[in-house]
Amino acid sequence: MDMPTIEALKRARIKWLDVSFSYKDKNHFIEIRTPFPDMFHDNISLVLYKDADGNLMLSDDGYTMDELGTLGFDTNTSVKRKKYFNDTLLSFGVQYTPTGELTIKLPSLSKYAQAELQGSYAVITDKNSLCDNRQMRNIL
Asked: What share of the chain is helix, strand, coil (3-state, %, to 5)?
C-alpha cells in the first residue's frame, strides 16, 4: 500500500465522521450519538440545546453522574476524588452543573466539533479513571 496523501486522509476522516455520528432533532434539543463507547460499551450520547440566556450548550444530560452513581461513586465522599474529577473536567473545558450534568458552553457554532470531542473524552475519562478496582470487580 502506498503512503496516502493528506487529502486522502482528510476525505477518509470526513467520511468516517459522516457515518459514525448520528443526530436526532427532538424539538428543543438535538441528540448526538457518538461512536465512542463508555465503560459499559454503550455509545456516548450528548445533547445540544440553548439555555435560558440563548447560549448553545453541549451536555451529557446527567448520564455520566447517573452511571457513576450506580457504581457507588460520589464526588463528595473523597476530597482526592473530587479534586481529580474537577481537574479532569477542567482539562477538557467541561463544567459540572448543580443538576449533575457535564456541560460545555459553546461561544459559537464553529466550536461545536471541538466541544463534541471534548465532551465525549471527558465522559470516557471520568468513568474509566474514577472507578477503583473494588468497583470494577463488582461490575465484572
From this structure: 45, 25, 30
